[in-house]
Amino acid sequence: MKNIIYIVIILLTIIGCNTSKPKFSNDEKQKTGSNDTIKIANEELNYEIIIIEPGFDFWLHSTAYPRGYHSQAYLENKNNIFVMEWNNRVRQPQLYPPNLYEMIIDYSPNINYGYEVNYLLYNYMIYFQNKYNQKLNGYVPLR
Questions:
Q1: DSSP letters along 69-112, please?
Q2: Are 135 and 86 in contact, with CB atoms under 8 Å apart?
Q3: Residue 104: how many CB atoms within 10 A of its CB?
Q4: How much is the pTM?
């Protein structure tokens, strides 16, 4: 009887150790943890944004809606609103934290930046608002 109790305890310990494995392998952790720089570019227009934001790449792949979920027109409209408010805040460092709003974003609604640029810019704006508890347009979607 004593031996059966020891065997059950050992089995439970082994099973308990196996169920506490992390969701991601070490390779995946290194990929998501070390890639904190996102480059948004449209080479035809010589347009480029570089985002250095810890956690954005992981959020983009784990939380954001997939490419194609929103139309390009939707993304362009939202980006235009977000960027206008962002630039207003950059110009008013006495009212808004200058460490959050450091640089003007040169975004024109008259230029077709392409889907990828609009997708990444839109998702960064959503990520930024959620991470820093900011509202660029009144309502902040979670993803």
A1: SS-HHHHHHHHHHHHHHHHHHHT-TTTS-TTTS-S-----TTS-
A2: no
A3: 11
A4: 0.70
